[in-house]
Design a protein that fits this description.
heteropentamer, A mainly alpha (325), B alpha/beta (268), C alpha+beta (527), D alpha/beta (290), E mainly alpha (327), A: 325 residues, mainly alpha, MetI-like fold, C: 527 residues, alpha+beta, 16 helices, binds adenosine-5'-triphosphate, binds magnesium ion, ATP binding (chain D), ATP-binding (chain D)
Chain lengths: 325, 268, 527, 290, 327
Amino acid sequence: MFRNGKSIAGLSILGVFVLIAIFGDWIAPYGPLDKDFTALRQPPSWVHWLGTTHMGEDVLSQIIYGTRGVLVVGFTAGVIATIIAVAIGVTAGYVTGWRSESLSALTNVFLVIPGLPLIIIIASQYENPSLLLISSVLAITGWAWGGRVLRAQTMSLRNRDFIQAARANGEPLYRIIAVEMLPNLTAIIASSFVGTVIAAVLGLTTLAFIGVIPITNLNWGTILFWAQQNGAFPDFWWWYVPAGLCIALLGMALSLINFGIDEYVNPRLRSAGERARAMRKKGFKLSDTATAVRPRPAAAGTSGPGTSSDPGTSSDPGVTNAGIK
Amino acid sequence: MTTLEFKNVSKKYRVRGSGELLALDKVSFTLTSGQTIALVGQSGSGKSTIAKILTQLERVSSGEVLLDGTPIPTWGRPLRRYRQSVRMVFQDPFASLNPAHTIRHHIERPLRLDKVVPADQVEEEVFRLLNRVRLSPEQTIDRRPHELSGGQRQRVAIARALASRPALLIADEPVSMLDVSIRLEVLNLLAELQREANLGVLYITHDLATARHFSDEIMVLHHGTVVERGKADDVILRPQHPYTRALRDASPDPEKHFAVPTTPGATS
Amino acid sequence: NNSSTPESGASLTIAKPDGAIATESNNPWIGESSGNKLGYINAILEPLGIVNLISPSDDVKPWLASEITWADDYKSVTLVARDGVKWNDGEDFTAADIEFTFNMFKDNPELDTAALGITDVTLDGSSVTIGFTGSMFSKQDKVLHKLIVPQHIWESVDDPATYENLEPVGTGPYVLSQFDTQSVELTARDDYWGGELAVPTLYYVSYNDNTALTTALANGDADWAQAFIPNVDSAYVNKDPEHNVYWAAAGLAVDTMFVNTQTKPFNDVAFRQAMNLVIDRQQYADIAREGSVPVVSSVTGLPTPVGDSFISPEYEGVSYEVDLDAATGILKDAGYTWSGDDLVDPSGAPVSFALSVPQGWNDYVTGISLIADAAKTLGVAATVDTPDSDSWWEAKGTGDFQAILHWTDTGATPYDLYSDIMDGRWLKPLGESADFNFGRFDSPEATLALSEYTNAADDATRAASLATVQKIFVDEVPSMPVGTRPFIGAYNTRSYVGWPGEDNPYVPADPTQPTSVLILTELEAAK
Amino acid sequence: MTTDDLLTVSQFSVSYDVTPPVEAVRNVSLTVRRGEILGLAGESGCGKTTLAYGIQRLLKPPAVITSGSAVFHDESGEDFDINTMDEIQMRAFRWEKASMVFQGAMNALNPIITIGAQLQDVFSTHRPAMTRTERRLESGRLLDLVGVGSNRLRSYPHELSGGMRQRVMIAMALALKPQLMIMDEPTTALDVLVQREIIEQISELRAEFGFSVIFITHDLPLLLEISDRIAVMRDGRIVEIDTARKLYENPTHDYTRRLLASFPSLTGERGGFVRRPGEPALDEEAGSIR
Amino acid sequence: MRFFLRRAAFYAFTAWAAITINFFLPRMMKGDPVSAYLQKNQGRISPEAIDSLRTLFGLDSNKSLLEQYIDYWQLLFSGDLGRSFSKGLAPVTDVIASAIPWTVGLVGIATVISFVVGTAIGAFIGWRRGSRADGIVPVATFFSTVPYFWMGLIAIAIFSTTLGWFPASHAYDKGTQPSFTLEFAGQVIQHGFLPALTLVIGSLGGWILGMRNMMITVLDEDYVTVAQAKGLRPSRVLVNYAARNASLPQLSSFAMSLGFIVGGTLVMELVFSYPGAGKLLLDATTAKDYPLMQGLFLVITLTVLVANILADVAYAILDPRTRQMEA
Ligand SMILES: Nc1ncnc2c1ncn2[C@@H]1O[C@H](COP(=O)(O)OP(=O)(O)OP(=O)(O)O)[C@@H](O)[C@H]1O
Ligand SMILES: Nc1ncnc2c1ncn2[C@@H]1O[C@H](COP(=O)(O)OP(=O)(O)OP(=O)(O)O)[C@@H](O)[C@H]1O
Ligand SMILES: [Mg+2]
Ligand SMILES: [Mg+2]
């Protein structure tokens, strides 16, 4: 997975954000709430690289400080949701009969309940909800999908011979699940984790934007909340464009990581992706229905006749006739 | 001397949509250590079901299974002790090893679980077992299953089954997924180990030829009932039951085929 | 449609930022009925008289009542029904309709959300006399702005609270011609008693939030709205500087920092006085309210110019100034010291307090951030809290706070403003829920003076008691006003002129008030 | 003019263009005669499938045919050089002249389409003139022919047993009465009884229609029974090709001999099998696995 | 048959659980409708009105939670969902009826379009894997990670405010009434275009990716090779053998995605001032309007369940195997 171009790109972007989150205090040119009343709603300048808000706060600094909130919530929610999803999904997949059915029903109920009001209601129980609480709420509304996938996967693992072998050897149940099954689920767990992180980041920013999550927890969503509340759309682009782009970039990075995981789990996807392109370079067309013919000795200089074919239409022969008689 | 006795064992499966399926119907037989019984029969005749009952992956619906005259335990520590004496080699060496773990893990687990040897000798024992199945321990121990060939994997599976020093070994079509050229090697290895350790072996197969050469007795299973049982050669060469005869006649046998000159391509 | 040539017979689109209208209800007594929410009920039903809340010294303009006579003690009022007014179903409007309407409030007190306390309603020919339990001096507007409904329709209504009034009959200039969840269309009557109407069609539209509404106002989709527009110049006015008008007229209400006068540190008058001296009202207006509302300048807390006539001579022209030196002086005198930069109270404890407003109330949040910054100049560690609004609301009522921003009610007199802040009648012990005077300012003199002011039967007594109230307010700083709460109106003059404005403030330019009927009749086609 | 030869493969090589490249089939030459069953035997991975797919140009990238030719001699006397056909020609050629029965019938049939529809596909592509009814009748006839029964036209693959599915595949391969049928391990997943039935069926059909068969399996005893000639492959090369009887009685190549020895005899006594105590232990080959 | 009974039991349970949660959740919230009402009207309603409002909303009766729960079920079965506090005491059924068609209409259509288009594009990309078309995947993924509200606001800024191509708000022009005329339909399309487009763009990525990955898996199946060996035209192989099989898993995700419609639509309705259930739900939640919240919850839950039932049926029709195998 770490040799996959996509995951590397994703991990690098994520790494940058993580560094920003950790070292935000040192990097940020100003405090996130430092107000400069002489520079209200300034477009980007050398003093304020990304301009200022209606109170003269430095947008760049807010973005830098906001990174931490986004990442902490995203990852905490991801961890919690994954723990729930694994606990419920794997158990539901391993046990049978009514136990499995009721856990599956529970999962479905969580899929059916509208998440947003649930979040609002739970969040409203607490004064000044902490990041942990917000993450938990996002996790509670976000684990069900992963739980479902894990259940299905566990069900297919359950009857695999190596699990049967472990049972026949007399391994205790917990060990079968923890030692024999989980390692084979890691890729799926990882991808469901990354998926919930993306969902949590989008959820957090959306909730912050519509104002149901305390705006004291500075994050990119709150920047957009303030921007929208203070009429930044559409004129003060510097105020809302960077935050939105950061969210998209983080989401993109996480998606890239997930691509990598997907390709790791399913090597066919890999061959479909990068290797397919490599093959194209070699002159193959994957949609061809006839095997390429490329006589070895003749092709020494050229890259083979196959490459000369026009990639336009699929009815195209794709293979030029290298008449061998 | 360990004896395992199947007494009027029946097994029903509940099948979604169509009620129950009688997979085994009053099957009785005895397996003693030092003896090899081949269990042959068509697909779906209930061969694997017998194996699963023996390893207690499934419970009997009626009848009993006795180990040295006492009913086998169904749970807890006694079950584990029972399982220690009855081990199984699965059909598909590609599926029966956990892709996430090394060979070491696979062989160590039963050793530790059943405390076959003191903890400090586990490593040594793993080496011994691998050597016994003719795998080079140094080269294989830290590899994962996907780095081994099918035959090597099946050897690991055999080593794992032998680790707990069982009295009885159940081999459910142990070579049908293997390449022709290595099938005999694996079977020969099994046969050798069986002799050395005085194992009782239940050899499940649909290949009559290997059944005949590998086992002392052959038991023919048809639709969940034992239709014929006897000395290996007798069953193959002088089958009594029409089903056994049909099975034998269906198996390709070039010797017979070329014994009578025929027009090429036509079947006998 | 941003063209600047006036369009004759153009319709007028009046907008609100309240989200979906959902279902039709033209019940004037239910605040959330579509008629009230969008405000179109005010073009259909009319009030008795029009009190100009942004210039209370103006005379009350009689409307459905052609004469309005208050008793000296303001405990009763006699109204003469206007002649020649017809309901839009052709029936005549009579005094009996006024009698019926007020009797309905008397019989269904849950409909009387202004808590007028009507005791009796007597009809005498074309005049009606209504009696009240208390003086209505400071609630004149609330009495006169009640919309009058036709007896012949409403007398057969079983439950006026849930009556949907789908075919609203009123005396007003417009009739409801089409209701739709997207927009409500009203057309001008040709038999309106007030004469010809310039605008033939009104549309009332709701947008889902302020941003969408601002966009609509800016691009001309909407013509008239009561909405706070952040950064109003660039977002709205400058889109058509010639015609777009944003007018925020101060009324007699303020945003004020309620401080808990029963707990530290605000239980100390000196500290309150000092804090009051460092709050920068100009900054609040400029930054928290983005320059779109007037500054509160008089030390009496009364907004100007609306409150000018109420300011006692002692404080005339005395304005809030930020004066850090004076503030530190007061603190020093009161025994406060500084440890480094941090303020330490006479008992030796460092001074700190928390300011809280609900999350999402963004101008308030900005406001308390500014105040917190100001407090830091005194060496006070002021923190900003933004709990969820329910927690805040609860804490506010029970007094579980140190400082909050809150509003005061508005009225035709400063009574509401002062009473809400310092009146003993609201006073509840800490822990019990109070409806106003959240800071538990306990001053019998203030309570007495306020009661005298509203119950007095002559102007001299009123002036004297109001002066007392103001003196206590200024000296003891029960609360610190930070900004005005203006009546906001945004409109354009592309098709119609005659709007109220800075130069002609005859009523607030708020389309959702009963007074908006006056504007509708004053509009003229632009040349 | 027709010759006795149906397919001439010469110096045929296929490699998989991966790193490092795998030369799966190396310079294979063979001919398939009209009407014969040619067996192709060899251990797993020796290139049997690659060769069979390769001569139909059915391999997907990264496979490339690196040398040689496969020439199909049509009944009509026309010769098709498969390697020089373009995609459209190739499509017309496939199934019409040469059809295939694939390894593992469960996967060779689309699980969510009825077998009737999958049979009729062939007609609607290659016999556009046929009406819907004709197609259905013809498909039904084919199913009857292989003993599945025309009433199964509307069944889905999962509703049929493994043997029935394999027969459906054979029916499909017969649909256009091709001159060559390539069967890649058609009976491997089936049990002996079913395998026997299918083998007999193939022999009968071949007798009836006279097509040639390339029969691929690693089950040498089976091949010996049904094939006219057998080619033994190893490492992408054909090491020996001869009639079944000759191969059985006089294997010339060492590898053929070893392969034959891997199958203990059912009724005879041959084989390196050490069941009974006292006989010599394993042969040296076993040690080589280490 | 058993299969369908099991499914029915399962759906009944899910419905019961969701409805019960719907009942208890709002009651766990802090605050009450009256203070929410006062807050919303900051200063325009005097606290003196509190008592009148309590009476008006019918909050002055004291019933235990259990009694209320029983009442709630009774009302549900009689089809009465109560009156909405925040919508002028209008019957909840009316309020919801005015909003649901728009949500289901716009978001439903957008979801279907995005599913169909995404699946088609995914099938195409999977088919021509390795070609330049692969470039669509990262682009689509990028758009699906962009916060929706942000994209919506920017779309308004560009296409509505600056270019003036599309109206920025509402479902149709003011002054028109819904009717089955061409003109009205034109307005609805014009108003719905931008929100629908942004919704589609925002959700396309998932469908494309899911379908592409499934296609790649399916294309390696033997039956696809068989179809090619049969000499079938590529288009036929693509449609009948590859895409058809690959789209089955998409179908069950589609059913699930219907469940997210309301959550997802909220932001859209906010940004585009579109009438609909999402904004209604947010309003109801902030106003503590229990009757409306419960009503909406109920409708949403039932819609999702029905969508799932339909998807189940469709799946059973398209994939004959499910009819036999376990759920
Ligand atoms: N878990 C199960 N639930 C329901 N039916 C089962 C189950 N396991 C096996 N069966 C059925 O029981 C019968 C016997 O199955 P079994 O696996 O024992 O056959 P087998 O002889 O091992 O066949 P094969 O040679 O194909 O492995 C079959 O009809 C099978 O379908
Ligand atoms: N897509 C591929 N990429 C790289 N190498 C491949 C690919 N497909 C097959 N090979 C290699 O080509 C060789 C021949 O494979 P082929 O499938 O033809 O063997 P086979 O004789 O049919 O074996 P089996 O009996 O197991 O079916 C093998 O070594 C295999 O590893
Ligand atoms: Mg079996
Ligand atoms: Mg093969």
